[in-house]
Amino acid sequence: MSTFLDNQNWRYATKKFDSAKKISESDLDFLKEAVRLSASSYGLQLYKVLIIESSELKAQLLPSAYGQTQITDASHLFVFASQTNVGDAEIDAYLKNASEIRELPIEALAGYGNFMKGAINPMPEDLKSIWTAKQTYLALGNLLNAAAELNIDATPMEGFNASAFNEILGLDKLNLTAVVIAPVGYRHTEDDTQHHKKVRKSNEDLFITL
Fold this sequence. Notes:
Helix 2 (25-36) crosses helix 7 (125-149) and helix 5 (88-102) runs antiparallel to helix 6 (110-120). The chain has nine helices and four strands. It has a four-stranded antiparallel beta sheet, sandwiched between helices. The two termini are 30 Å apart. The radius of gyration is 19 Å and the shape is globular. It has a domain at 18-82 and 126-188: NADH Oxidase, CATH 3.40.109.10. By secondary structure, it is an alpha+beta fold.
């Protein structure tokens, strides 16, 4: 019997982490693999995921997250950053990787490559930025679900100054911009939020079957 739904009921947006508890290397590898395997549009994965362990760096980021102590108390901080300039180079890199992994001649993928370039390159830059940012949320979802499977807490957060994060982490120089972050670790016994009943819409209010 799957424990997926039980773990989804167990998880919540942790408000206070136990700073003394750290994620093991094996569990961190599991979370990274879950993020790596996440779905993304065309399979391009037009983002990077920074995993911040350094206490000093987390403390430096804290003011730019409006003093939310999940940033510093959690074992690790995941920062999902989307690419800010997408074009032929990113598509060609994907095709090269696909060719090597699937053991296909690169020419066999030319049609798909042209299809992607025809769909992506004409997009206005503002819409392209929105599209790449959306992809990071798919990866974030995998992180949240994988963490719950291990009874590890993860809190998705949009409440931070992306420009400040970009500057501190040097993301501008990497053609990246921070989109969403997730402190990951273990809930503190003093976090009363863990005892609150989960509030979600009923099936009748949420789903429409046609």
